[in-house]
């Protein structure tokens, strides 16, 4: 406004009447100008240039300019170079274009346009280009198919721009001001154009010389005309904002106009939707959740950063999915080039990665009704995929899972005219059987290994499609393997403001009269569960009454039995909620007198809806000693402890007798704990693991005792049972088997010491104990008891100084035990032998102890030979004693047919026959 | 071999104590027939010894030729169970509670197995076999109910000897079907005598004072007394009157826990005590024994005024523990209760001053 061109105004003031005429003429030109819209941007020029250009364009145009304007028509059609006509056509077209421009530009531009003079218009002209582009962007859903061609940065950039623009467009939808104001700018152009001329004009004129020497003819008006004109100009100027009052007035007018229009439009919509809704009710009976499902990315209600991350992850797949070799997936040629380019780049940098993101699966998790499924669908669609959904309603056995996986990832729909790659969405995967999830994990990771083996070029069963898994509870045991390889996206709750805005919008469309407050309350009540909010709204619709805040509070519908997380419940029990934080449930009875009651009912409700009392109580039991408690006196603690007892007894009754009616009483214990433990501040809680660890340790110890029991010889076993073993025998044995041995060789032991050693060995064998050599991490070898009863026997490991044997002693004992076991093993054999030939019974007293088989054979021969030989020999000796003395040593050898001695080893320096039995 | 095993009497006539009971048993067997028996008594009183002596009396030395066997059973739900049995030609001994909640299957199957194989040569030995079931008080109610009918049904072919520490958890139906034989713990004097006798055999000299102290620690458990005695010998010989008497670690541990409870009554102690209790439980010390030992230790340091109160609480808690499942809750509840009562008493006393 400030740089309003003064000369122009002056001309206008002077030649107002001529302007009128010209305006009329211009109006006639509307039709032809429209046909030439395409030429608009060929000469981006301002109206100021008009006369100059026409001058430079040559003689032929002079005539046409000076002649009546209708004559211009043939000229423009003949000669497109005619700038004047072009300008005219442009000008006439102006109101139309500017509206479009403003609709796609942001507010600043619109305001500029509002107050623009002729010079400003160039900007508008320049934006004519963008206009078309804007048109394209406006209907962004359709051209999605070509989106993926762009590189991801470009894509994102454009996308963000689009989102911004579209959001603004929504705001400015009904802003028609620009269109109105444009008319005024148009009139200025007319002024300057038809009151000046380089040629001698037909109207009365005054010749003026410009600074550069050109002669310009200025139109001459009568005084009356001038006066009149001045008034109109003043009027117009005020409307343009030169005078504040006028501008404000116009603004007000415009506003009323806009509101009127909005109202009109809305009524129209209301009518139309009501109609369409009625028909829908008759026909397809669509749920509102389906009807108002977001179909575009910008319509998503869920948290923007989550959406963005999801989309980013999907975009990471672009290289793998859209840049594959063209023969594998024919894409339009334009894209092909691009893809080749990218492909080359990708092959250079990370071909082993196949251009796939590090995480092959995205795992969306969060409570129901936040729009996880919707996000997956919309994002996948937005990224240019065809969504294939598998959910709980489908067969999810391993076999079916396999087929659907392979179908979705390796094939493509032929029937669809849009040849989009698939994106697999596994909905409600937390309910799928373990085997299926294991298969999925194998499918994702297992193929990765085969890929590297086969090489880059081959196309095979490498997962080349994104997979999105959706679950409510990410900590389901079956999901554990998946969780480790997946890109886990935790779904934050939707902002209640955005949700209520959307609800507002929907209720407006559905013709429900309500206000923002009610919608906010509804959103809060359902904990921002979109689905449940919509259902409640749907329900209210049937009332055909305005929905108010109190309605929302009063009705008990729309309130879910919410399953809160384990830690949330614990936190709730250990923490007193600040009373100012009123929730829907306790709005009615919020008074100090009833706080206890409220707290109690709140805890009851939370605990009941969680359900897993066992885990809850265990968590409380293990957490409370570490926390700051409100009441840490012994009275409170003993009271709380008694409730643990109560809940345990009750639990046992319930589970052993299947008397589930008793479980009604279980939640009350939590109320007591809440009252005894809860403090206002938040506490740090841990997952209860002590109970579990204790249980595991117990089974381990049990196994040790069982091991001891298993190896006992029957005559000990018969008198010994588990309990006495644990309580009496093992603790004492651990002391008995460690007599103070001297750390010297066994041969150097005194008889008493040997006896002691023998006793230890025997005891250890009786109770199936032994020392086993083990290698510690630091390379030291130690002998440990096996089974290791030390752990069971010793408590408070640090304080007790246990006497242990030295390494060498343990080694010795260990060897002795093995030997003794061998001996014992032979005892039954010898017993059998002795029973077989009663003659040998007499020899029992002799040192002929049974030996292992290989030794026994040798011995048996020599021993058997001796007596027989001797006897015979002695018999004869009696008759011939001389013979005896001479042949004594050689006799037995000669007696046998064959005699040999087998010597083993390299060294026969000192060789001594030792019997196993003598090794004691 | 441990002394406890080495000097175990093998014959009813050689038993060291409860001789009149031994005579009765001998007479019972002499008739050639006897009813089902339910032998019960505290640990280390000699139940098993008596049972084995009885079997020897019945079948002769053959009953001592024992072998161990793994028997397998299949539950109705097709779960395979394995259980270790100790058996001779004449009897079989099994501890059904080894298989936990499936003990019913074991009880039924084993009785049927034994009972169905009838003795062909009836004049050679007895016409019945003996089944020894140990830890009957740990049997589930199911198993006990299964037992009571089978017991009667197969009485022609088998006798059942039940062995338990306490009959309070044996259902009355079984108690009434058996001849209940209580084997009380030997008196302290008896144990001292036996210790002396054993040491004599080992040609050791045991001072009277040490023997008395050993008996005190052993809690009238003969097995424990013998083991402690042996441990003492290993530790130091020749014996001295004031020698350190080895005590089982768990007992010391419980004593320490009790001392801690008496020292301080607050949250810290409670959580420390809980740790200790967990350790005891994980090491397989039965909760009722923990309970009992703990109570005994606590009572030693209690005023007469609160003793009755504490004992009452202990009784209530132990009863509840039998009904419950997680003994740690019950133990801790008792601990908290005790600390509360004790603290109050202390405060009252302080108030008086």
From TrEMBL, chain A:
One of its GO terms (molecular function) is ATP hydrolysis activity. One of its GO terms (biological process) is DNA replication. The keyword Cytoplasm does not apply. Pfam families: AAA. Residues 23-70 are annotated as: Disordered. Its main location: nucleus. This is AAA+ ATPase domain-containing protein. It comes from Phaedon cochleariae (Mustard beetle).
TrEMBL record, chain B:
Transmembrane segments: none annotated. InterPro entries: DNA_pol3_clamp-load_cplx_C, DNA_Rep/Repair_Clamp_Loader, P-loop_NTPase. Its main location: nucleus. One of its GO terms (biological process) is DNA repair. One of its GO terms (cellular component) is DNA replication factor C complex. It comes from the Eukaryota. It is found in: Nucleus. Keywords: DNA replication, Nucleus. One of its GO terms (molecular function) is DNA binding. Belongs to the activator 1 small subunits family. Subunit of the RFC complex, an heteropentameric complex consisting of a large subunit RFC1 and four small subunits RFC2, RFC3, RFC4 and RFC5; the RFC complex interacts with PCNA. Forms an heterotetrameric complex with RFC2, RFC4 and RFC5; this complex has ATPase activity but is not stimulated by PCNA. The heterotetramer of subunits RFC2, RFC3, RFC4 and RFC5 interacts with RAD17. Interacts with CNTD1; this interaction facilitates crossover formation. Subunit of the replication factor C (RFC) complex which acts during elongation of primed DNA templates by DNA polymerases delta and epsilon, and is necessary for ATP-dependent loading of proliferating cell nuclear antigen (PCNA) onto primed DNA. This is Replication factor C subunit 3.
């Amino acid at each position: 406004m400030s740089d309003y061109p003064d000369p122009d105004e002056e001309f206008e003031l002077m030649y107002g009447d001529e302007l009128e005429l010209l305006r009329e003429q211009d109006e006639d030109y509307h039709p032809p100008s429209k046909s030439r819209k395409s030429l608009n941007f060929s000469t981006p020029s301002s109206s100021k240039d008009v006369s100059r250009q026409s001058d430079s364009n040559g003689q032929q145009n002079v005539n046409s300019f000076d002649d009546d304007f209708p004559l211009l028509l043939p000229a423009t059609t003949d000669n497109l170079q005619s700038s004047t006509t072009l300008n005219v056509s442009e000008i006439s077209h102006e109101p139309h274009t500017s509206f479009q421009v403003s609709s796609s530009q942001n507010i600043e531009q619109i305001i500029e346009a509002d107050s623009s003079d002729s010079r400003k218009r160039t900007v508008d002209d320049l934006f004519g280009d963008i206009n078309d582009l804007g048109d394209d962007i406006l209907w962004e859903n359709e051209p999605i198919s070509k989106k993926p061609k762009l590189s991801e940065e470009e894509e994102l950039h454009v996308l963000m721009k689009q989102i911004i623009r579209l959001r603004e467009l929504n705001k400015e939808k009904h802003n028609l001001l620009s269109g109105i104001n444009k008319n005024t700018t148009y009139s200025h152009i007319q002024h300057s154009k038809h009151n000046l001329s380089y040629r001698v004009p037909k109207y009365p004129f005054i010749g003026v010389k410009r600074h550069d020497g050109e002669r310009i003819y200025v139109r001459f008006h009568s005084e009356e005309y001038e006066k009149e004109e001045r008034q109109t100009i003043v009027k117009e100027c005020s409307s343009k904002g030169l005078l504040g009052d006028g501008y404000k007035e116009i603004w007000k007018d415009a506003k009323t106009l806009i509101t009127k229009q909005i109202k009109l439009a809305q009524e129209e919509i209301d009518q139309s939707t009501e109609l369409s809704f009625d028909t829908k009710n008759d026909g397809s009976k669509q749920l509102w959740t389906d009807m108002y499902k977001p179909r575009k990315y910008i319509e998503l209600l869920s948290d923007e950063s989550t959406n963005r991350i999801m989309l980013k992850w999907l975009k990471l797949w672009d290289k793998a999915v859209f840049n594959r070799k063209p023969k594998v997936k024919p894409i339009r040629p334009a894209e092909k080039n691009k893809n080749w380019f990218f492909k080359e780049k990708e092959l250079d940098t990370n071909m082993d990665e196949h251009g796939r993101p590090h995480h092959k699966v995205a795992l969306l998790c969060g409570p129901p009704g936040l729009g996880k499924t919707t996000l997956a669908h919309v994002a996948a669609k937005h990224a240019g995929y065809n969504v294939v959904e598998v959910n709980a309603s489908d067969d999810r056995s391993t076999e079916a899972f396999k087929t659907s996986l392979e179908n979705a990832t390796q094939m493509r729909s032929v029937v669809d005219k849009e040849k989009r790659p698939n994106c697999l969405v596994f909905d409600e995967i937390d309910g799928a059987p373990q085997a299926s999830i294991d298969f999925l994990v194998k499918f994702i990771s297992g193929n990765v290994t085969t890929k590297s083996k086969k090489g880059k070029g081959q196309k095979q069963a490498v997962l080349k499609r994104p997979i999105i898994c959706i679950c409510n509870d990410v900590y389901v045991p079956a999901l554990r393997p998946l969780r480790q390889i997946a890109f886990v996206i935790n779904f934050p709750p939707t902002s209640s403001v955005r949700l209520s805005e959307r609800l507002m919008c929907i209720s407006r469309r559905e013709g429900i009269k309500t206000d923002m407050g009610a919608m906010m309350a509804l959103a809060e009540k359902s904990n921002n569960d979109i689905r449940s909010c919509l259902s409640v709204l749907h329900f209210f619709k049937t009332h055909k009454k305005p929905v108010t805040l109190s309605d929302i509070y009063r009705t008990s519908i729309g309130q879910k039995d919410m399953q809160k997380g384990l830690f949330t419940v614990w936190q709730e029990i250990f923490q007193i909620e600040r009373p100012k934080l009123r929730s829907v449930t306790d709005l009615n009875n919020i008074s100090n007198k009833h706080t206890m009651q409220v707290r109690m009912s709140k805890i009851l409700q939370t605990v009941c809806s969680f359900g897993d009392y066992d885990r809850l109580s265990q968590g409380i039991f293990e957490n409370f000693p570490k926390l700051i408690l409100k009441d840490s006196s012994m009275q409170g603690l003993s009271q709380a402890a008694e409730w643990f007892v109560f809940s345990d007894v009750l639990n046992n009754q319930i589970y052993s007798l299947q008397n589930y009616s008793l479980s009604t009483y279980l939640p009350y214990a939590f109320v007591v704990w809440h009252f005894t433990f809860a403090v206002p501040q938040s506490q740090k809680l841990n997952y209860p693991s002590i109970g579990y660890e204790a249980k595991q340790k117990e089974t381990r110890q049990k196994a040790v005792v069982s091991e001891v029991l298993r190896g006992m010889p029957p005559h000990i076993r018969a008198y010994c049972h588990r309990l006495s073993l644990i309580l009496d025998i093992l603790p004492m044995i651990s002391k008995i088997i460690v007599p103070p041995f001297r750390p010297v060789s066994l041969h150097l032991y005194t008889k008493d010491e040997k006896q002691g050693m023998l006793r230890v060995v025997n005891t250890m064998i009786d109770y199936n104990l032994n020392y086993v050599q083990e290698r510690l991490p630091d390379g030291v070898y130690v002998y440990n008891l096996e089974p290791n009863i030390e752990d069971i026997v010793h408590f408070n490991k640090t304080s007790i100084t246990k006497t242990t044997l030295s390494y060498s002693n343990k080694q010795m004992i260990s060897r002795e035990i093995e030997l003794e076991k061998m001996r014992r093993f032979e005892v039954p054999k010898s017993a059998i032998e002795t029973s077989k030939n009663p003659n040998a019974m007499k020899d029992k007293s002799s040192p002929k102890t049974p030996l292992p088989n290989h030794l026994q054979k040798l011995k048996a021969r020599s021993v058997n030979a001796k007596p027989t030989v001797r006897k015979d020999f002695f018999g004869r000796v009696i008759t011939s004693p001389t013979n005896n003395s001479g042949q004594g040593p050689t006799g037995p050898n000669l007696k046998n047919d064959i005699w040999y001695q087998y010597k083993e080893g390299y060294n026969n320096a000192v060789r001594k026959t030792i019997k196993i039995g003598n090794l004691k | 071999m441990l002394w406890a095993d080495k000097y175990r009497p093998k014959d009813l006539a050689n038993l060291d104590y409860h001789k009149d009971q031994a005579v009765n048993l001998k007479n019972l067997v002499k008739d050639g027939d006897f009813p089902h028996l339910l032998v019960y008594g505290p640990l280390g009183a000699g139940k098993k010894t008596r049972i084995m002596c009885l079997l020897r009396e019945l079948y002769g030395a053959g009953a001592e030729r024992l072998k161990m066997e793994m028997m397998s059973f299949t539950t109705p739900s097709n779960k395979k169970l394995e259980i270790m049995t100790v058996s001779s030609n004449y009897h079989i001994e099994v501890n059904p509670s080894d298989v936990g909640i499936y003990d019913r299957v074991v009880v039924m199957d084993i009785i049927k197995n034994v009972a169905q194989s009838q003795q062909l040569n009836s004049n050679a030995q007895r016409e019945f076999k003996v089944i020894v079931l140990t830890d009957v008080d740990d049997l589930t109610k199911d198993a006990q109910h299964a037992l009571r009918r089978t017991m009667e049904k197969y009485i022609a072919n088998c006798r059942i000897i039940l062995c338990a520490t306490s009959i309070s958890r044996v259902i009355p139906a079984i108690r009434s079907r058996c001849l209940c034989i209580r084997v009380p713990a030997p008196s302290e004097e008896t144990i001292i005598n036996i210790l002396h006798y054993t040491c004599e055999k080992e040609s050791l000299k045991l001072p009277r004072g040490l023997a008395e102290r050993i008996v005190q620690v052993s809690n009238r458990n003969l097995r424990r007394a013998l083991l402690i005695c042996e441990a003492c010998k290993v530790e130091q010989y020749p014996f001295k009157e004031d020698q350190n008497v080895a005590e089982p670690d768990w007992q010391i541990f419980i004593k320490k826990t009790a001392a801690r409870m008496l020292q301080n009554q607050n949250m810290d102690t409670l959580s420390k005590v809980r740790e200790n209790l967990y350790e005891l439980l994980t090491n397989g010390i039965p909760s009722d024994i923990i309970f009992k030992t703990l109570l005994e230790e606590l009572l030693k340091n209690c005023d007469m005024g609160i003793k009755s109160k504490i004992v009452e609480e202990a009784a209530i808690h132990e009863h509840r523990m039998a009904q419950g499942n997680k003994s740690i809750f019950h133990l801790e509840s008792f601990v908290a209760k005790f600390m509360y009562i004790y603290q109050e008493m202390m405060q009252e006393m302080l108030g008086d001053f």
